[in-house]
UniProtKB/TrEMBL annotation, chain A:
GO biological process, one term: secondary metabolic process
Leader sequence segment: none
Ranges where the Amidohydrolase-related domain occurs: 23-368
Protein name as annotated: Amidohydrolase
Pfam name, any one: Amidohydro_2
Classification via InterPro entries: ACMSD, Amidohydro-rel, Metal_Hydrolase
An example molecular function term from Gene Ontology annotations: hydrolase activity
One Gene Ontology cellular component annotation held by this UniProt entry: cytoplasm
Region (Disordered): 62-88
Entry keyword set: Hydrolase, Lyase
Recorded superkingdom: Bacteria
Automatic annotation (TrEMBL), chain B:
SUPFAM superfamilies: Metallo-dependent hydrolases
Keyword Hydrolase assigned: yes
InterPro entries found in the cross-reference section: ACMSD, Amidohydro-rel, Metal_Hydrolase
Protein name: Amidohydrolase
Entry keyword set: Hydrolase, Lyase
Domain Amidohydrolase-related as annotated: residue spans: 9-348
């Protein structure tokens, strides 16, 4: 496949969509390497220049599986003033928020302190990213809302960061990634869930991250496509862990959003969990309900990358198994696998379901009037 | 319920090795001595603890010994009960967990010879899978060639969780030998536990490990397809055993979407993933991860867009269903015939061979 890069007269705007939408997965980026420095103590400037971030993977720069295009982002999304895709608010407004009629945009910053091995550095960067989200994005455009990023491997520090941001309307959720040092249901992460429940913030679990574990249960695969597809398997096991460890029994008001990992697999996973649970209940007596019931009550799903079966009936049946009230539209702007809002749903969806899918589910979950 | 029809092929039976010492007669002096001198214990995998509810149906559990260790029980409870014409034995014994390729080789040879003498020689309906020492490709190929001379071996058996993704070129000599000898590769649930059993690390519970088998099958299918195994070996069949299959449609939607997006990375994948699955991949029936109503299941079969993918299995003696409900509700008689007879015969070419030994 050859990717043709054509000059575009205007900022690649879409045909536009008439109704307002919520975009529950937008990735804001830093324009320059030192854009975060004003929010970081001096100590960390020198540390970063000397040692870098020291992640759970081998590369000092760039991902272990090279993406299919720079920064895994749209080639038409470079801001005219320079910097990487997603790093300019004015260009994001012009290319995406305005033409696509985005009424609510949830920011999910990547490349933060999450998944770093030095926990003090992780905490400092996460806190800086949270300040930066307010100053550069949410205070400048009220359609945008931030996600509290936390040093996920240090549950106590992460909980402190959540409590620091509790009640701040710049933020609508806490952000975790699916791949961590341990499966997400493990006790080391429970302080995060406790603080999020207390603050009334849902937790978005975005695909990706590095915790040092191979992305398959059989070791490291060869190709980028295996990593991309594999995120959905990581998400499945992370969700199974959350359910089976009893996180939703212990934190009954906790809400979680599975971000960018697909949703088509949800029914099959829930059926499998229920079937095995019927046999192995004795091993997990802390569960009082069937696994599928915890999933139905506590989990929401963002749509991008949209499930794309040949037959729209297959898509509709799958969504009916999950619930039209549980899907949150997302584009993944500015990443390459961006979902175009006007094309993502096939014909034949009722107006009420469309309204829920594109906007109302998100507003309700995130408490936006 | 849906009634089974006579003459089916049960593609997933698990005869149990009573104890490591049962294999001693099939080892040479050196390994017999190693086993006894070093006080080696039985090779029971974490995947199937002997007393766990999923390791045996309560009514199939013998008064003593491991579930699946008695031929008479297997005959009465599975082969006769469901009227099977053939039953394919997939021994699950912890030889894949062993770290030494020499030890694994000795144990695999003993296991395969034990299967012939204790099972295949005693019931004409039984066929076997060749268990291979994946720790060494050279030794694995040699063991396939050694056993394949006996045509009652109809497949090569591997586990879904090993050291490396199964599509890796490292494993291709195994696939070349299997294709040449008319043996499908059966990939069964289970782990060598050389990597964490999930792609996000070690969980706390057996139930987590068991649920995670389905995700492991998904990543292996990705690996097998995108590495180009079936472009190189177009006649090779692979059978996912005890994998579940209701995850297949959404898995393929995602793989297809990303394949369209980044296929320049793997240009040798010149057919859509769904087409590759249709021509080269099959799945055992049990477990059926779906609600008990026939409507949902029929929708899932519709999502799979093929009635050729599923092969009848009881997973004996594992607990996948109660009573006589080996077939889920709602299957048409035509589909039952395909699942129980046509599809297995189209997959296992060696079932047609009249003379079982050369």
């Amino acid at each position: 496949m050859n990717i043709q890069i054509r000059e575009r007269p205007e900022a690649g705007a879409s045909a536009g969509i008439k109704t307002a939408i919520a975009d529950c997965d937008i990735h804001p980026a830093r324009a320059t390497k030192d854009e975060l420095y004003p929010y970081l103590a001096k100590r960390w400037h020198a540390h970063l220049e000397t040692f870098g971030v020291h992640a759970y993977q081998g590369m000092m720069e760039g991902p272990p599986y090279p993406k299919a295009q720079p920064n895994a982002s749209r080639r038409d999304a470079y801001p005219p003033e320079g910097g990487q895709q997603g790093s300019s608010l004015s260009f994001m407004q012009k290319q995406h928020l305005d033409p696509n009629n985005v009424a609510l945009g949830v920011l999910n910053p990547l490349n933060t302190g999450q998944g770093l091995r030095n926990q003090d550095l992780a905490g400092a960067i996460c806190s800086a990213i949270n300040d930066w989200q307010i100053e550069k994005w949410t205070s400048k455009d009220t359609r945008l809302k931030g996600s509290v990023v936390v040093p996920n491997e240090d549950g106590v520090a992460a909980a402190a960061e959540i409590r620091k941001r509790a009640g701040d309307t710049n933020f609508v959720q806490v952000l975790l990634l699916s791949r961590n040092v341990e499966p997400l249901g493990q006790r080391r992460y429970w302080p995060i869930y406790e603080a999020a429940q207390e603050a009334g913030l849902p937790i978005g679990v975005h695909a990706f991250g590095f915790g040092g574990n191979p992305i398959t249960a059989s070791g490291w695969p060869s190709f980028y496509i295996e990593e991309m597809v594999g995120h959905s398997q990581c998400q499945q096991t992370a969700l199974a862990s959350l359910v089976l460890e009893g996180v939703f029994e212990r934190f009954p008001k906790l809400k979680m959003v599975m971000v960018e990992a697909g949703f088509g697999w949800a029914p099959s996973l829930a059926w499998r969990l229920d079937k095995v649970f019927a046999r192995l209940h004795a091993e997990v007596p802390h569960l009082k309900r069937k696994p599928s019931e915890y999933i139905r009550d506590h989990i929401w799903w963002t749509t991008q990358p949209m499930e794309d079966p040949e037959s729209r009936d297959h898509l509709f049946q799958t969504i009916e198994w999950i619930g039209w009230d549980r899907l949150l539209f997302a584009t993944d702007y500015p990443h390459w696998d961006f979902d175009e809002p006007s094309r993502v749903l096939p014909a034949g969806v009722s107006d009420a379901n469309k309204q829920a899918f594109y906007l109302d589910n998100a507003k309700q979950l995130y408490g936006i009037a | 319920m849906t009634s089974p029809i006579a003459g089916g092929v049960d593609c997933d039976l698990h005869p149990a090795v009573p104890h490591l010492t049962s294999l001693l007669p099939y080892m040479n002096d050196y390994w017999r001595d190693q086993v006894t001198t070093r006080g080696m214990t039985d090779l029971i995998s974490q995947s199937y603890p002997t007393n766990s509810p999923i390791s045996s149906r309560p009514d199939w559990r013998p008064a003593q010994g491991k579930p699946g260790s008695s031929l008479a029980d297997m005959q009465r409870q599975a082969l006769d009960k469901f009227g099977s014409a053939y039953g394919i034995c997939n021994p699950l014994y912890g030889v894949q967990m062993v770290f030494s390729e020499d030890m694994a080789d000795a144990f695999c040879r003993a296991l395969n010879d034990w299967l012939v003498k204790e099972w295949l020689d005693k019931d004409d309906r039984l066929r076997g899978s060749i268990v291979i020492p994946v720790q060494s490709i050279e030794k694995a190929v040699a063991e396939i060639e050694r056993c394949a001379r006996d045509r009652r071996f109809v497949q090569v058996l591997m586990l879904v969780m090993g050291d490396m993704p199964l599509g890796k070129r490292h494993y291709w000599p195994i696939y070349a030998a299997a294709e040449r000898l008319g043996l499908p590769i059966g990939i069964h649930a289970g782990s060598a536990y050389h990597n964490p059993p999930t792609s996000v690390g070690w969980g706390s519970y057996h139930i987590e490990d068991y649920v995670a088998q389905a995700q492991a099958f998904q990543t292996q299918l990705t690996s097998l397809i995108v590495e180009g195994v079936f472009a190189r070996h177009p006649n090779l069949k692979m059978v996912m055993l005890e994998s579940g299959f209701t995850w297949l449609p959404p898995f393929l939607w995602r793989l297809h979407k990303f394949w369209r997006g980044v296929r320049m990375e793997t240009p040798w994948v010149d057919r859509a993933p769904l087409e590759i699955v249709r021509s080269n991949i099959r799945f055992s029936l049990q477990p059926v991860d779906a609600p008990p109503d026939g409507d949902t299941l029929n929708r899932l079969f519709d999502h799979m867009q093929s009635d050729e993918l599923i092969l009848f299995s009881t997973d004996y003696p594992h607990w996948q269903f109660d009573g006589d409900d080996v077939l889920p509700k709602g299957l048409s008689q035509d589909l039952v015939r395909r699942i129980m007879i046509d599809n297995p015969h189209a997959t296992y070419a060696r079932l047609k061979m009249k003379e079982t030994t050369p």
